[in-house]
Amino acid sequence: MDATEPAAGTATPEELRQQAKADNDHRKVAACLVCRRSKVKCERGPVGDRCRRCIQLHTECERPAFHVGRRKGVKNKRTGLDKALYQVEEALRQVSQNAHSVDATRAVSELKALLQASSQGQQRNSAGVADRKRRHVTASADSHDQESSSETEDHVDSPQSENSARQVSSPVSSSRNPREESLAVDDAENPLQLLARASNLHLSPPSSDIAASGVTGSGSLQSLLNHNSKDIAEIERFFNSTQFSLDTDADMDPINLGLLSEEEAEALFAFFHQNLSHTRWGLDPLLYTPPFTRARSLFLFTSITAMSALFMPSAGALSRRLSNHCKTLANRVIATRCRSVEIVLAFMINVPWMFPGKHSADDDTCWYVSMAATISLDLSLHKTLVPLDSHNAEPPSHVSRADCIDPKAALALDGFHDVDPSSELGRRLLRRRERTWIALFVLERGMCLARGRTYSIPHTPIIKSCDRWHISDIADSMDGHLVSMAVLRRDLDKLFASIRSLCDEALDSRNNGSAIAHSIQLTIEQFFERWHANWGHSIGTGPDSRLPPYVQILVTHTRLSIYGSVINHPTAAVEVRHFFRAAGLSSALHVMRAAIRGESELKSMPNNTAIMVSFAACFALRLSSQFAGNPNLAQSVRTLIEETADVLERIGTITLHRNGISTLYGKYLRHIVRKAAIGTETMTPSARAGVDPLHSQVNAFQQLGHVGPVLTDPLVSQPYMEASPWSEQFQFSAMSDDQVMEALSRVGNEFDPSFGGFAWEDTATLDWMDWSNLPEYRI
Asked: For bias kind Polar residues, which ranges apply (predicted)?
């Protein structure tokens, strides 16, 4: 490769300038391979293109093609389209690691597919030319070819440079086909860079478009790639976030199966929203129309129509068909692991009017509530909706980031990817998530209060801050009733804790039991006064803001549960226990009176409400038998219980096919009342005389009035010691509230602490309701 030296003294000044420029250009070439291996500076010799070290070693001086700047793969040294593609790949890699929403994941997948298709087309069009540039193809040893290596990329792509490259390349590289070019490894000569590129795995598995791209390759290799692609897809699906799954199979559609027509569905939906929505809160009538509900959940669609048919006298056959199909759908939803907000609502709608099982605790109420709670947590219904896509958006100070969810992500979880959260439809869809969680909280707490179970739904930020949730331009008319019950049952935990601490103070002998009773009574009164002040005007009717019968039963039963907890608390003083027996009896009577007077509005009484009324009846029956001063009270209470039993039986048989559980409770109440009456009549006079009130208790209640202000329950009046028994019975159902208060105040407070007036053979008759075992106290 030696070049002929120019003759001395024959060059003109112009030729000398051109020769100097050529020498300067020649010095831009890269270091030769010998100097690279020795890691020394490659200095060109005075003659020709050979460097000084190659001249000393008498070896051939070979140099690779020279490129200005760093090699591909080094940060911040990419240009043109290569730089743009690299930036997009890096952005996708970062976004894919932090993508939590379905929209972001789908956008990343689409961009990955576009990049992969672009890279495949680039490989087919370039036919290996770009790869040779990145892999430092060895240049020709000829000096003229060496000069051409310092030219621009257009000269590199010329046929002359390609021919020189083929002459020095190995037979393997010269025979490569495009398929092998695409499988080549970049930067194989740089171990550190190769490891860096290997750690950055492909953003997505190879697409199936490779097989259809016309690129020929090994069949076994192609099958291996397809198999790996399937495995990766399965792994990604396995570790993907929880997604919605709708139960909308056409083979289970009640309309397709001929169980009902579309016209019947329209009529049943209208009946539900008009006559049953005040009993089962949680549905937006403007959103849950028959077409929308049918497209979202066949379980909910069938449940609404089945529950409506229960209360339509002429829909007996339709009700039986839909009820059986509803059970089938419930089992199918559980077996196929379907998840949606509508499925949660379907489980909740079936709870109020569920048919009785073989035993009082054998129905599916607790199971349905548990399934609704599980699906709700899977769909993040308990999380607060806070926009997280804005840098300035921060969750409230009392809410952690883990308890928040972005509205777009929430809609994506429900399958509404294209709905704008700020639109009216988006706001209603988001509000339905919050309404469902609040309704589930109210239902679960009511079930636990009625059945003596332990709570399972936690106090989430939505529940803690729902006091003004019902105030909205898209609120439903029943949202106020729902929130009022949520607030009442939410704050019960604090009230129970206060009562428990006050009762524990009675263990100290220095504390007066009467003073503690007064403190407990004042705490309870203030609690309900605040609740009535906040919610009486918004949900009450009439000038007196009278509560609807259904809500009145729930509130009064809550008061009764509190009194029962105080009576049975192990650390409560004797004065506390006996004082709250009269208050508890008053609350129990008012629960039954509310059921009797509101019968016309309680035709769709839920099962939990029937249990609450039965609990109040048994409570009153047991306490009335302990009034030793007036036997007429016990007979009056038994009469009121019989009237309540009649109401429960009529409500349970409002239609021939209703089969309500309240019918069984009414029959059972009638049975135990007759049993109690027989036991009272068979008591001997000597036994009646033996029931003598204890003077110590009378003195304790006399002292109670001198401790502080007079203890007043809104349902019980003072003084208790003005005992002047009436000769006639009390007609509690026909009396006003003031007359009931006066009657109870005239009865006196002479309880029988030894339960001598409780003459039943089986003292555990009331254990079937477990009403005395309040979950807060583990009694």
From this structure: 117-126, 158-167
Q: Which of 167-171, 204-208, 288-292 has the highest mean pLDDT?
A: 288-292
Three-state SS at 764: coil
SS3 annotation, 553-611: HHHHHHHHHHHHHHHHCCCCCHHHHHHHHHHHHHHHHHHHHHHHHCHHHCCCCCHHHHH
State how far the Cα of 717 lies from the Cα of 424, in Å rounded to an integer.
52
CB 133 within 8 A of CB 67: yes
**Helices and strands in the chain: count of H runs, count of E runs:** 33, 2
Predicted pLDDT of residue 657: 94
Longest dimension (CA), the chain: 155
DSSP structural state of residue 718: S
Strand intervals (E) in 579-693: none
Q: What is the mean pLDDT of the chain?
A: 74
What's the token pair of residue 628? Answer: 């030793």
Residue entry with tokens 């073989």: 358
Instruction: Give percent helix, percent strand, percent coil of the chain, each to the nearest 5.
Output: 60, 0, 40
Nearest CA to 411 out of 508, 517, 340 is that of 340
Return the pLDDT at 733. 66
With contact defined as beta carbons under 8 Å apart, do 169 and 218 qualify?
A: no
What Rg do the C-alpha atoms of the chain give, in angstroms? Answer: 43
- Whether 167 has a pLDDT exceeding 50, the answer reads no
Q: Which two tokens stand for residue 417?
A: 């990817």
- What is the four-CA torsion angle of 174, 178, 180, 181, rounded to 10 degrees? 80
More confident residue, 611 or 453: 611
What band does 763 get if pLDDT is binned at 50, 70 and 90? very low
d(C-alpha 260, C-alpha 302), whole Å: 10
The mean pLDDT of 339-345, rounded to a whole number, is 96
Give the three-class secondary structure for 707.
coil
3-state secondary structure 161-181: HHHHHHHHCCHHHHCCCHHHH
Asked if residue 352 has a cis previous peptide bond (ω within 30° of 0), the answer is: no
Instruction: Take residue 640 and report the two structure tokens written for it.
Output: 């009121």
CA distance 139 to 156: 10
Could you tell me if 80 and 133 are in contact, meaning their C-beta atoms sit under 8 angstroms apart?
A: no
Kindly report the pTM of this predicted structure.
0.65
End-to-end CA distance of the chain: 104
Q: Which of 95, 107, 103 lies closest to 420 in space, CA to CA?
A: 103
Handedness of CA 473, 475, 481, 482 (dihedral sign): negative
Report the interhelical angle of 661-681 vs 631-652 (nearest 10°): 160
Question: How many C-alpha atoms does 181 have within 13 Å on its Cβ side?
Answer: 25
Ramachandran category for residue 763: left, alpha or beta (phi over 0 → left; psi -120 to 50 → alpha)? alpha
Identify the three-state secondary structure at position 281.
Answer: coil
How many Å apart are CA 442 and CA 516, to the nearest integer? 31
Q: Which residue has the tokens 């329209």?
A: 266
Measured distance CA(614)–CA(644) in Å, rounded: 9
Q: What does each C-alpha distance from 733 to 74, 587, 638, 662, 663 come to in angstroms?
A: 90, 14, 12, 19, 20
